From TrEMBL:
Required for ubiquinone (coenzyme Q) biosynthesis. Binds hydrophobic ubiquinone biosynthetic intermediates via its SCP2 domain and is essential for the stability of the Ubi complex. May constitute a docking platform where Ubi enzymes assemble and access their SCP2-bound polyprenyl substrates. Residues 16-111 form the SCP2 domain. GO terms for biological process: ubiquinone biosynthetic process. It is found in: Cytoplasm. Its main location: cytoplasm. One of its GO terms (cellular component) is cytoplasm. Pfam families: SCP2 (PF02036). This is Ubiquinone biosynthesis accessory factor UbiJ. Belongs to the UbiJ family.
Length: 203
């Protein structure tokens, strides 16, 4: 299988499986039905996302004109998790948009707002007890990582301001804070899902 075909098949399969596991994704998909979006990650070849009822096809080449385009670097892909901030990211030159900006925002919302209960998915294969054990360990690990990130951020800020009187530029600060905030949001969401799983197990 050619490399382009392998990549598009892998991305397409991953996208459709993720959307299938999110019961709320159908409503967000409706805004994209019949539309085509060109995603160009600067370090990679462009991909075209063609949306139809209940699925998305990913192509390495597309003869027609895309309804919208999104251009960004590989490191900026995480920005799509916050589609409401796309305008700010454009001003900061962290990404570029071609065509319909509302379509790009809908694309970001489709994948950035995935609400998958991973604990429930895991319990289907391992059972509730093992799923609970694994998730508890993962939650503990996430808390340690979050605490270490916060400690490192505070130490770095103190060093820059007190030791060498330097500070990073506003874009670097914004990017770092965004990454930390996204991680903390994921941790909080995982804890809420774990609490729901524990409630079901205790019922």
């Amino acid at each position: 299988m050619p490399m382009d075909a392998f990549i598009t098949a892998a991305v397409e399969t991953a996208c459709n499986q993720l959307l299938a596991r999110d019961p709320t994704s159908a409503g967000r998909q409706k805004r994209l039905q019949g539309k085509t979006l060109r995603l160009h990650v600067r370090e990679l070849k462009p991909l075209w996302f063609v949306f139809s009822v209940g699925r998305v096809d990913v192509l390495a080449a597309y003869e027609g004109e895309a309804d919208a385009g999104l251009i960004l670097s590989l490191s900026a892909l995480g920005l799509l998790r916050d589609p409401s901030a796309l305008t700010r990211y454009i001003r900061e030159e962290r990404l570029d948009i071609e065509g319909d900006p509302q379509l790009v925002q809908a694309f970001g919302s489709l994948f950035g707002e995935l609400a998958i209960d991973w604990e429930e998915q895991l319990s289907r294969y391992t059972g509730d007890v093992l799923a609970h054990t694994l998730v508890s360990g993962a939650r503990h690990g996430r808390r340690l990582v979050a605490a270490e990130l916060e400690r490192s951020r505070l130490q770095l800020a103190e060093y820059l301001t007190e030791e060498i009187r330097l500070a990073p530029g506003p874009l670097e600060v914004a990017s770092f804070n965004d990454d930390v905030e996204m991680l903390l949001e994921r941790l909080r969401a995982a804890e809420l899902r774990l609490a729901r799983l524990e409630q079901r197990m205790g019922a």
